[in-house]
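Researcher: Next sequence.
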Amino acid sequence: MLKITAIGNLTNDVELRSHEDGKPYAILRIASDRRYRDRDGNKLTDFISIKVRGALAERCAAFAYKGCKLAASGDFETIVFSEDPTRQPGFLIKANEVEFLSPRKVEEAAGVAAEDGGAADAA
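Model: Next structure:
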């Protein structure tokens, strides 16, 4: 069994898509800086693609935002670009776990607090 975990910052907002059968999915792309620099002192950054499906994709679309830090775990899939055979193969993580490591957005947290306050008043 192979399991990969990647931690990084989301490079763009999550776009929820659907397969032909209507099941949701999303491709997340994260950026992660390496701990060391190259010989010229430049910071090195890796970009990793992550595929999430179903309810996990819907949760990512609801809670993840550009710049947030997240951890994704799962196995990986090799991608071959048949339309461009000169392009190097890549991979993406097929995540079955995503953990949001950044706090919620300020607007979202305020909405949750307002909902909780309204529920407390009704009690």
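Model: The mean pLDDT is 87. Residues 16 and 26 are 5 Å apart (CA to CA).
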